[in-house]
Hints:
Strand content: 15-25%
CATH topology: Rossmann fold
Number of strands: 9
CATH class: Alpha Beta
Distance between the termini: 54 Å
Shape: globular
Structural class: alpha/beta
Oligomer: single chain
Largest sheet: 7 strands, mixed
Number of domains: 1
Low-confidence stretches: none
Amino acid sequence: MKEIFQGEVFAETANFDRGIRQLMPRYDEILDVLARCTPANAQRILDLGCGTGETSLKILDRCQDAEVIGVDYSRRMLDFARTKINLAGYSYRWTGYEGDFGEWANHNLSLPGEFDVCVSSFAIHHLTDEMKLTLFERIRSSLKPGGVFWNADRVLPESLALKEVYQERREDWAQSQGTSLAALRTKFGTNVSQGYSGPDRFATVYSHLQMLTTAGFTSVAVPWKYYGMAMFGGMVETVEGDG
């Protein structure tokens, strides 16, 4: 099997956008919620682990005046994203950086300026819990007052019984899309750990909210959850007198 980075999932990048929709129940819905929860007037937005650009596209559609900075350590994913974003007419508002967001979390990768919003989808679960917290702290320190962070991701089942339920729902979803999890796995590559990203390291929603609170977010929320997937995040308190 072809060796791929964690998060690339499929051996062939061209299979990603369709395959991820077959693999993840309500994939478009979770990204729609993420975009809707992003302030439409945001000016600078950071997309961590931007992959093939699906989240960036949702945000660019939503925030008509925003500049989006996409970061991913996969050059082939960035190239794929850049092509799609160019075709959508958003090339002047999107910049892709090849880099490991774990390095950014540890201040070893520089990205220009502060941000109004940070988003991520299906990427952060590749970090250890210790690195998740470090990343959340870095995000918090990089957001302007009133800024928000939203993360769409798979989460750890809260019990063995729920693990079985969540897995059954994923299989049912794949079948409703005309395939099966087994058939989709035949298109996967062999994941190779790179930088700070390793095999799936899921955490519960509760654990994520605790980490966000520890990182200094003054308000945390879970606008969307569906079985083993959730969209959650935190907000930064507006400085007194702003607005």
